[in-house]
DNA sequence: CCTCCACAGGAACGTAAGGACG
DNA sequence: CGTCCTTACGTTCCTGTGGAGG
């Protein structure tokens, strides 16, 4: 027993790994050379140099879909700028904030203030007091502060007061200067902005077009050379990864995931070459993993709503076999939801709330909801599942609170 | 052309949990 | 302790609306 396990370990260790350095394929990795992003890099640098002269750089808005290199370029330029300023003895700091995580005024300000050594509690203070603290800390010396707000649209949704305050801050600062770089993947997010904020924030705008398949291919070749050992990639692997990712609106991140996961799959199968079929498997795996993760971590009420939709979907499928066309509407979902709530003794939320939960599911890409008018028969949302029914059912039923609903009969309303 | 269904989705508010501070 | 703050999650009440059927 032990010896066979020993053998296994030895064999696994000795079998030449196909990876040279897997880290290069993770999105946390910032490469030294950003392929196909020269113009954007230069543009950004050109605007930001003034920081090195001790002047305030224009505020910048950067647009582009996910995986178009916005974050990578911005962070890269920011890093270089900081290095440069050190060498030149100019006080200039770049703070990177991801608004997906830090998504409220308070947290943002607290975060900034903490960067200057202020001690701000997680919660509890009035917001303007935090702002005051931050301002004081910042203004103690001559310096230029550049705040990178990644996913800035997430912040705007909860009120744009901070942006207003930040963009007007320079007027009240004696020594320090602040400039803001907003990074967004939503092109229309400025629509919700106060016009004043909009104009001051968008002094400069840089747009990142999606990569096309050729460009993604170049990126992959560049990374693969570092990440993989020579001759382990089948010739068609990278083109295929690139093509698949290009379909997903030119998402380079997705392409890198594909390339990495393909390799992992090949490795696990103890094969020495990565082939096209591994990429196909990887494609499926990534998608399923994503869904499973999202569904598993849903709040219970959302799970129940989703479960109602899943159940309706199953019963609709049965009906369709009898040739009866049928779609799922909000009302139907809510009815089933209510019955199921009763049968497992959970609080029943109002329909208003349930529609919100469904919108969230829609945004997560788990379901697809479309408002349609059925004329005389009202106006509703037609809902369809955009993920495999069976997988979703399996994940949901794992939840101990939903487990009692196993085998629930939608049509009859009991087991 | 008008009506009226079956909801969508905005606005305002309530409650609880979590923390700072005097 | 009570007073201030925050966020998360709900509720109540509300106005708005595309188009089939009259």
Describe the structure.
- By secondary structure, the chain is an alpha/beta fold.
- The chain is 50% helix and 12% strand.
- It has three domains: 38-208, P-loop containing nucleotide triphosphate hydrolases (Rossmann fold, 3-Layer(aba) Sandwich), CATH 3.40.50.300; 211-295, Orthogonal Bundle (Helicase, Ruva Protein, domain 3), CATH 1.10.8; 298-405, Orthogonal Bundle (Arc Repressor Mutant, subunit A), CATH 1.10.10.10.
- The chain has 16 helices and eight strands.
- A five-stranded parallel beta sheet has the order 2-3-4-1-5, with helices on both faces. Strands 6-8-7 form a three-stranded antiparallel beta sheet.
- The chain is globular and about 70 Å long.
- The structure holds a DNA duplex (22 and 22 nucleotides).
- It comes from Methanolapillus millepedarum.
- Residues 306-396 form the Cdc6 C-terminal domain.
Short summary:
With 415 residues, this protein is of the alpha/beta class. Helices cover 50% and strands 12% of the residues.
């Amino acid at each position: 027993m032990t010896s066979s396990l020993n053998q296994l370990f030895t064999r696994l260790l000795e079998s030449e790994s196909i990876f040279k350095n897997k880290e290069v394929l993770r999105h946390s990795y910032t490469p030294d050379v950003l392929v196909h992003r020269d113009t954007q890099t230069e543009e950004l640098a050109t605007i930001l140099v003034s920081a090195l002269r001790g002047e305030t750089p224009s505020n910048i808005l950067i647009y582009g879909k996910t995986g178009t290199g916005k974050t990578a370029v911005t962070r890269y330029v920011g890093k270089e700028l900081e290095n440069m300023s050190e060498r030149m003895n100019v006080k200039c700091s770049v703070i990177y904030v991801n608004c997906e995580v830090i998504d409220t005024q308070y947290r943002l300000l607290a975060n900034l203030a903490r960067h200057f050594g202020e001690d701000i509690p997680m919660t509890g203070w009035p917001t303007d007091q935090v702002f005051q603290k931050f301002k004081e800390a910042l203004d103690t010396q001559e310096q230029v502060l550049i705040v990178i707000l990644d996913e800035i649209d997430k912040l705007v949704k909860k009120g744009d007061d901070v942006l207003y305050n930040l963009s007007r801050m320079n007027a009240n600062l004696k020594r320090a200067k602040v400039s803001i770089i907003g990074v967004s993947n939503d092109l229309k997010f400025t629509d919700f902005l106060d016009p004043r904020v909009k104009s001051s924030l968008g002094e400069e705008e840089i747009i990142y077009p999606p990569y096309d398949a050729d460009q993604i291919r170049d990126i992959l070749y560049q990374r693969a050379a570092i990440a993989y050992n020579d001759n382990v990639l089948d010739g068609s692997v990278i083109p295929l990864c690139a093509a698949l990712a290009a379909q997903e609106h030119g998402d380079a991140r997705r392409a890198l995931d594909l390339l990495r996961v393909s390799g992992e799959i090949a490795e696990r199968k103890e094969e020495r070459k990565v082939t096209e079929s591994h990429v196909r498997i990887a494609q499926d795996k990534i998608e399923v993993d994503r869904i499973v993760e999202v569904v598993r971590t849903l709040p219970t009420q959302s799970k129940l709503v989703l479960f109602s939709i899943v159940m309706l979907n199953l019963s609709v499928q049965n009906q369709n076999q009898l040739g009866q066309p049928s779609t799922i509407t909000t009302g139907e979902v809510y009815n089933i939801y209510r019955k199921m709530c009763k049968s497992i003794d959970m609080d029943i939320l109002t329909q208003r709330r349930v529609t919100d939960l469904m919108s969230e599911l829609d945004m997560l890409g788990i379901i697809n909801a479309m408002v349609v008018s059925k004329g005389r028969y009202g106006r509703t949302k037609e809902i369809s599942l955009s993920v495999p029914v069976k997988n979703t059912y399996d994940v949901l039923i794992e939840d101990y609170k939903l487990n009692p609903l196993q085998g629930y009969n939608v049509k009859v309303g009991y087991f």
